[in-house]
TrEMBL record:
SUPFAM superfamilies: NAD(P)-binding Rossmann-fold domains. This is Uncharacterized protein. Keywords: NADP, Oxidoreductase. It comes from Cladosporium halotolerans. CDD domains: SDR_c. GO terms for molecular function: oxidoreductase activity. InterPro entries: NAD(P)-bd_dom_sf, Sc_DH/Rdtase_CS, SDR_fam.
Length: 266
């Protein structure tokens, strides 16, 4: 019988209380990893860790939670250092991100929303990548996998503008690509996940019951539906595992074909 896909690996997931983060945590646990679930919201983390334990009762690794604001370097350093007791990080999923309700177009986006979005979505990924590299080196690891969550809006333009968010995800994509090249000979792989719009609170709370707003987006999916968080998590699991040993610097698009579509089926 083949072994578990992440057996013996230590992983950090940021934004672990949210849609993609929680589903990824569960898959990582089921595949034998030990996981630190990090999030800015402690109450959300409490609920999420209970769900993760329930969904992965057979877990062989360890699990712990950490309150962390990814936009603060001391928070990220403490988070990564907390994995020293397990032998250092092998997998870093820099996934926390925000899409602010006041984010709009070039004219209407407030500067403070712009700055907040870049601080969390871009600086947070930089800090996570930086401290993952430092930990991998400190523990003399010959391989590591860092996955950074970007978005399809880093690849295609949307006439439903959220300029600060879009700019932040473009930065994540470019930064991840460069990190992949810089660290390739150390055995550290960097890949960017590009999800299409999903059925997670980040988007769905914002869409609410507004059917017109919903349709405006759904019509662009060849499949006619939004993606599910678990479908992103399966991709992250692959990128985290040694099965992806030659996958580096990729814009890993999980979008049901959305970014390849011109006219979609009726
Ligand atoms: P979500 O809102 O369900 O989860 C995001 C989590 O990040 C939340 O638990 C939140 O508390 C946490 N968070 C927010 N700010 C933080 C901070 N400063 N420090 C630490 N944690 C913080 O969203 P999701 O859909 O699971 O999104 C995860 C990632 O996927 C984000 O980077 C998002 O931009 C990206 N993404 C989402 C979609 C979508 O449609 N849902 C599409 C493309 C990309």
């Amino acid at each position: 019988m083949p072994g578990l896909r992440l057996e013996g690996k230590n992983a950090i997931v940021t934004g672990a209380a949210g849609g993609i983060g929680l589903e990824t945590t569960i898959l990582f646990l089921r595949e034998g990893a030990s996981v630190v679930m990090a999030d800015i919201s402690e109450p959300a983390l409490e609920k999420a860790v209970a769900k993760a334990k329930e969904a992965a009762p057979e877990m062989v690794g360890k699990i712990k939670t950490a309150k962390c604001d990814v936009s603060k370097e001391d928070n990220i350093k403490a988070l990564v250092d907390s994995v020293d007791e397990w032998g250092g990080v092998d997998i870093m999923f820099n996934n926390a991100g925000i899409m602010h309700a006041d984010d709009a177009d070039a004219v209407d986006t407030p500067e403070k929303i712009w700055d907040m979005t870049q601080n969390i979505n871009v600086k947070g990924v930089w800090f996570g990548s930086k401290h993952a590299v430092l930990s991998l080196r400190k523990h003399n690891k010959k391989k590591g996998s860092i996955i950074n969550t970007a978005s399809v809006v880093a690849l295609v333009g949307a006439a439903t503008p959220q300029l600060a968010y879009t700019a932040s995800k473009g930065a994540v994509l470019a930064m991840t690509r460069e990190l992949a090249i810089v660290h390739a000979r150390e055995g550290f792989r960097f890949n960017a996940l590009c999800p299409a719009p999903l059925n997670t609170p980040l988007l769905q709370d914002w869409l609410g019951d507004d059917q017109a707003k919903r349709h405006r987006r759904e019509v662009h999916f060849p499949t006619g539906r939004f993606g599910e968080a678990i479908e992103q998590a399966q991709a992250v699991l692959f990128l985290a595992s040694d099965e992806a040993s030659f996958v580096n610097g990729s814009d890993f698009v999980v979008d049901g074909g959305m970014t390849k579509a011109y006219v979609t089926p009726e």
